[in-house]
Specification:
Blueprint: H1 9-27, E1 31-32, E2 35-39, E3 51-52, H2 54-58, E4 63-71, E5 77-84, H3 87-98, E6 109-117
Antiparallel strand pairs: 1-3, 2-6, 4-5, 4-6
Length: 122
C-alpha cells in the first residue's frame, strides 16, 4: 500500500491561503442591482431583480444596461434586444428580464428597461 508523501507546513499554508482567497467567488453569491426603471404603460406582475455578477462586483464594474423587451399579449417575454451597456452586466439584466411576467395586454408590446448596477463596497 502506497502512502502519500506528507505536505510540508509551508505548502499547506499557501494552499489554505489560496482556497480562502478564492472562496468568495463561490460563497458570497450575488446581490441585486441598485435600480430598475421602466418606460412603458405595462406593469410587472413578478419582481425584476437582476443579480449583480460576482466578477463584475470584484472588478467594481458599474453602469446602466438598456434593453428592449418584446412582451407577448399574455405577459411573457418573447425576446430582448440590448441597446447598450457592459456585456457582463447585460447578461445579468437579460437573465432577469426573461424571467419576468408582465400584465396581460391586447397585443405584443415593446418595453424599454434600464438597469443600473452600482458596485457598493461591502
Amino acid at each position: 500500500m502506497d502512502r502519500c508523501a506528507p505536505i510540508p507546513q509551508q505548502r499547506r499554508i499557501v494552499i489554505l491561503a489560496l482556497l480562502v482567497s478564492l472562496s468568495h467567488l463561490v460563497f458570497i453569491g450575488t446581490s441585486p442591482a441598485q435600480q430598475v426603471t421602466f418606460h412603458g404603460d405595462r406593469k410587472l406582475i413578478t419582481e425584476l431583480t437582476p443579480a449583480y455578477p460576482p466578477l463584475a462586483r470584484k472588478l467594481k464594474l458599474t453602469g446602466t444596461v438598456k434593453m428592449i423587451a418584446l412582451v407577448a399579449a399574455d405577459g411573457h417575454v418573447l425576446q430582448t434586444h440590448l441597446l447598450g451597456g457592459n456585456p457582463l452586466l447585460a447578461k445579468a439584466a437579460e437573465e432577469a428580464i426573461t424571467k419576468t411576467k408582465w400584465q396581460a395586454h391586447s397585443t405584443e408590446t415593446k418595453e424599454l428597461i434600464e438597469v443600473r448596477f452600482q458596485a457598493n463596497d461591502q
